[in-house]
Amino acid sequence: MRLQSPEVAARFERIRAREVILEARGLGKVYQGAQGDTEALRGIDFKVHRREFVCVIGPSGCGKSTLIRILAGLEQATSGEILLDGAPVKGPGRDRGMVFQGYSLFPWLTVKGNVMFGPLMNGSSRGTAEQHAREWLELVGLSKFADAYPHQLSGGMRQRVAIARALVNQPRILLMDEPFGALDAQTRSKMQTHLLDIWRNLDVTVLFITHDLDEAIYLADRILVLKAHPGEVQELIEVPVPRPRSPGQFTTTEFQATRARVDALIHPPVEAPPDEAALVDKPMIRFTDVADDIE
Ligand SMILES: Nc1ncnc2c1ncn2[C@@H]1O[C@H](COP(=O)(O)OP(=O)(O)O)[C@@H](O)[C@H]1O
Ligand SMILES: [Mg+2]
Question: Coiled-coil stretches, from where to where (predicted)?
């Protein structure tokens, strides 16, 4: 089934014509533990183009966090390699910004202090670091809260700070591991739209992990679907939903068809056990004494 409109197909043509920023080649990871080895990833190959927005989705435990930690240089791959702008990744670096689900802000620093931290570590003067921090806080809409402390902010605001703190170093790629996973539905939806606005205005590539299908389709150009045990690339899907995106598109044919397709990949249909009908037919035990039977 081909759902791409000519406009969307042309968009993917243009994306493919851009340079490759990130490339994973035959990436594998085996964790060695007392209870034996866990093969978390096997033979992962993919390429991400400049300014592309790629989401990674897959069941819990399929190696999503492992993958992003290897890309960030926080974890060593057992096999294969990662190239960033054509050069092998050996460890963490300023060229990759990380945003995690947990609020990883320094609680003893103000919002501004948190954003200034990276530039100061990289040798910027206080004045320059402060100026950059103010610019990025403006971009994420938090100028008024520059002097607040993390505990005074809502969950959504803390993730905005985390995004500003990652972007202030002007990374080539933003690596996000379920960054909105702990937020309530309404805040989460606002943050998704906010992230798209930021991305549209920057020269930054995004690799975003989620287990929420709607989130992946709403945000991504392409979705990398992983399967579990071991984590392998199941499919790389081009999202046929046009840009700019808006929540109104959730009901469109392209959106729903993509949703059904990814859903079938992640949750393959299981056959009901033969005795399931018998289970449903059993009379229920009654737990009420009210006997007027009006229900
Ligand atoms: N540090 C670790 N040591 C041993 N096993 C790990 C470690 N981290 C993750 N694993 C295992 O690797 C697999 C993938 O984990 P993870 O990357 O966290 O998956 P996901 O983020 O998709 O839920 C799981 O089976 C998990 O138990
Ligand atoms: Mg994870």
Answer: none
221's tokens: 């150009």
Cβ burial, residue 168 (10 Å; 0-12/13-18/19+): buried
Q: Which amino acid is at 214?
A: D
Task: Describe the chain by its helix, strand, coil percentages, rounded to 5.
Answer: 40, 25, 40
Q: Whose CA is nearest to atom 11 of ligand 1?
A: 40
Residues lower than pLDDT 50 in the chain? none
Q: What is the pLDDT of residues 146-157, one digit of tens each?
A: 999 999 999 999
Helices (H), 140-252: 155-167, 185-200, 213-219
pLDDT of residue 273: 66
Residue with CA nearest ligand 1 atom 23: 61
SS3 32: strand
Rounded CA separation 211/181 (Å): 9
| pLDDT at residue 124, as a whole number | 96
Minimal CA–CA distance to 40: which of 267, 237, 228?
228
Distance, CA 38 to ligand 1 centroid (Å)? 8
Three-class HEC string of 253-282: HHHHHHHHHHHHHHCCCCCCCCCHHHHHHC
Report the SS3 class of residue 8.
Answer: helix
How many A from CA of 193 to the centre of ligand 2? 22
CATH for 1-95+173-181+203-295, among 3.40.50.300, 3.30.420.40, 3.20.20.70, 3.40.920.10?
3.40.50.300
Cβ–ligand 1 contact at 78 (below 6 Å) = no
Task: Specify the pTM.
Answer: 0.91
Question: Would you call 293 exposed, middle or buried from its count of C-beta atoms within 10 A (0-12, 13-18, 19+)?
Answer: exposed
Q: Is 186 helix (H, G, I), strand (E, B) or coil?
A: helix
Structure confidence at residue 80 (pLDDT): 98
